[in-house]
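Lab notes, practical 5.
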Amino acid sequence: MKKNRLGVILMAGALVLSMLAGCGNTDTPEVSSDADTSTKDELVFVNYRDIRDLNPHLYGGEMYAQEMLFESLVNITEDGYEGCLAEDWEISEDGKVYTFKIREGVTFSDGTVCDANAILANFNAIIENKDRHTWLEMMNLLVGVSAPDENTFVIELSKPYYPMLTELGVTRPFAMVSPAAMKDGSTKDGVNEYIGTGPYVLKEFVTDQYAVFEANENYWGEQPAIKKITVKVIPDNQTRIMALEKGEIDLIYGKNMIDADAVNKYLDSDEIKVALSTPTSTRQIVLNTTNSILSDTAVRQALQYATNRQAISDGIFYGLEEPADTLFATTIPYCNVELEAYAYDENLADEMLTQAGWVLGADGVREKDGQKMALDLLYNSDSVTEKAIAEYLQSEYAKLGIELNIIGQEEQSYRDNMKGGNFDMVFNICWGTPYDPQSSLAAMRAPVYGDYAAQQGLHDKAEIDDAITKILTSTDEEERQELYRFVLTRLHEDAVYIPLTFECNKSIYRADLQGVGFTQTQYEVPFADMYFE
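Output from the prediction step:
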């Protein structure tokens, strides 16, 4: 079933560029080149790495590829939720029981029937590995699942939970794999094959080189116009761009795949088109409130005023990635709560730091009680964008007497240190649509990422966590909005996060490719909507 797409927006937007050194092996199967005909039904896509492990119950695979193969009970659309493998559903009056009517006539691509028993087998496999999925609050509230008959599937919770359908509709882990592909009814240690009910099947895969997908002939929904998709692995950004210009690939898609120069270059092109979405996530710096310097709210607020977001937007993103005044864009549900932005004001920042007792030393660095105002900023060394922002802030903060040491680490070390709270300041990105704001906030209550550690020095941490818990189980829309207002206002005034810019999803593609747009799930590439003309 097709998912409703967000409108294609040719407007200011931007990217996170994680440029990886080197060039991928582009030896791939031959792809027919009939771009000048109206019958072209093969598309060549590109990614900076291969598809990896596509087990939909784990988190190692490329999400765009998982979306091609696997489906969930519901889809998340621009207008709300629509049925997918569940044709319809009912929610009990107390909000604790969800009863799904499973769509009849659906089979996995290996011929296995996808009925309520198959859905139950998937949920049992996911629950077996429950500890891996506790970032989803519904897993903490889950009482049990059952299949009263082959057409009915039931989920019972201990409390009502308003983001329930969102968590069931995102890419993973609640996507359905053929029970015949499981390992003795389990998926926590892998699957035998990547067999789903989606519009495509995986036909061929060579690590670090390419993957080939073909239309699923047994797909229950509308057959896609694109019958074959070859995914080439090209790590280097400029090599990808050259391949697009030469006609070797048709489509580059994703917020991490295209730099601002490429967007600018093709805005007025006839041969290559550009599509940008509305904001999907926020680029930010997280401040560790347990740090002896950053434990002072006045210092954290001074850093907010000392950060010129517009200069970052203009100087690093050519104005394409819009300045972010708040932790979440006001277009995100529940987040338009009229917060007063920390407008760039270097003089005010200087005044606040001085009033907080930090005075300039002879070497130009502020001091207080014999301590230098020296802070470390941790970034992902694979991201040239984060490095560029870090170097800019290092220079700007130095003007105020703040010594900023920038430290780049490879991705896994960077993430481990962020999660462990081993940082003064660290780059991060909020979870993005459709996970925001509920999943981002829910994860703040446990050491999932760096938020939990960073907030440990807040005097109102317990109040914030309690309000987040109430948000997730509230059945009253007005109460929920007021709770969101409380949490977002507290986090804003506590100045734990320095929002920098709003990211958007993006694509550049050959002009004969039509139907390129965006869905509510930012990690999906909606191939099933695309066609050539």
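Observations recorded by the TA: Confidence is low (pLDDT under 50) at residues 4-26, 32-37. Residues 279-504 form a domain with the Dipeptide-binding Protein; domain 3 fold (CATH 3.10.105.10).
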